[in-house]
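Q: Could you write out the predicted structure for this multi-component system? I'm mainly interested in how the pieces pack against one another.
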Amino acid sequence: MALDPTAAREQILEFCKSKTKTKFYFNDFTKLFPDAGQREVKKVLTTLVNEQVMEFWSSGSTTMYGLKGAGKQHSEE
Amino acid sequence: MAKHQTPLLDQLESGPWPSFVSDIKQHAEFRHANEGKVEYQIPVDVCDDLLGALELSYVDGETHWKHGGIVGVFGYGGGVIGRYSDSPEKFPGVAHFHTIRINQPAGKYYTTKYLRQLADLWDFRGSGLMNLHGATGDLVCLGTTTPQLEEIFYTLTHDFNTDLGGSGGNLRTPADCLGQSRCEFACYDTQDLCHTLTNDYQDELHRPAFPYKFKFKFDGCPNGCVASIARSDFSVIGTWKDEIKVDQDAVKGYVKGDFKPNAGAHDNPKWGKFDIVKEVIDLCPTKCMSYDGALKINNKECTRCMHCINTMPRALHIGDERGASLFVGAKAPILDGAQMGSLLVPFVPVESPYDEIKEVIEKLWDWWMEEGKNRERIGELIKRQGFPKMLEVTGIKADARHVLEPRSNPYIFWKEEDVPGGWQRDINVYRKKHAL
Ligand code: SF4
Ligand code: SF4
């Protein structure tokens, strides 16, 4: 099933806002869209990063996604 | 005089080896002298404070770095590793000390001009300290501040025609041996494959969507100069299908002492004259060689260990039908101990555009992205779900070469589609043979 990018985007943002944690693994998002391919979900996330709505958080060994400006900005594993 | 007293670090300089402590001290002086009149963009005493912070870690027996963060360059999920001091008042020069990974060229061939430019950039916008190269293969620049990151990235990509490497849960910077550019043992063009896959998988390198890290490494032959079988999730090792080529006259030359074995690399007069039986025939791991004035090899039993070829490179040469073996799942010992790669594809031709190899890679990724737990390497997934599962997802048929040891599990789990007639049977047909 093809993913509707606009709806998926809203769903992702709502999901992030509904949680108390602020950083998410990639597969937290793929779980939201069990019928969609990983690459489709990735495309939506990449767009959100490029639009500076979301941002990457990295420990060096793993990477997570979060809403821009949410939570601690650094040095928190 | 040094900014911080560092008696514990000073001791490290007393050994017989070159010391990173001496290197950092030397660079601290170089920065203060500033003969090139560089307008430093980060504190001039970054190296002094680095030594101070390290000394404190030695005194306390624990690190004073905090790592991780939002730092990175726009749109990239990797390539920059954020690092901060937990004692910035004591060591303001290293309050931020981020690392930048730069994608090294295939085969690590640089021009001196490039390296000079890079060193100048790093003196200007960073600490000047570099590590050539990190374990993954990147050229690593150690220590800069957050505001410098985008500036450095701009210069690297626009003026130096260079990209950042990988970090985090993505494809890490692929690395290769120098292959056919200098080495007659290379069974395929490692540099072309490494460079091509680096370009083809840019999205995987810079936009993380994997459960954890994933490394490619390319060795041109089983000598394994980049140790791909031990250090990469997906390892490509050159091999050949036909026979080792033998020049019997050159073999005799080695026996007579006309040529130095190992090209003189392990020369020691105490070892006496070259003894082909002791030094080659008896050391062949599969005992598939013999010598009776002429060298004979039972190529069917040869495992391509390279020993005989390394010892007598003038006489022996890799075969002509060349390609590579693919191994999956090596990793370092964080969970469950260290693991070597498992053989998945015994032989694959290595020809541009490398579709056969890419097909295997992409099937593995689909499986791992679907089934892998967060922070689970593909090698751990293979252990958790079993090697046969990997064969299933890649569509590769089981082969005797996949077998490591006799089975210890007596059960066979059949799938319905593997059993003729499935789970249904005609009871009347059965009863004809088996009375009640
Ligand atoms: S791995 Fe083999 S081909 Fe590559 S440089 Fe080493 S010896 Fe040569
Ligand atoms: S490459 Fe190794 S296994 Fe093969 S013949 Fe030579 S020594 Fe024996």
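A: Regarding packing and overall arrangement: The first strand of chain B starts at residue 65 and ends at 67.
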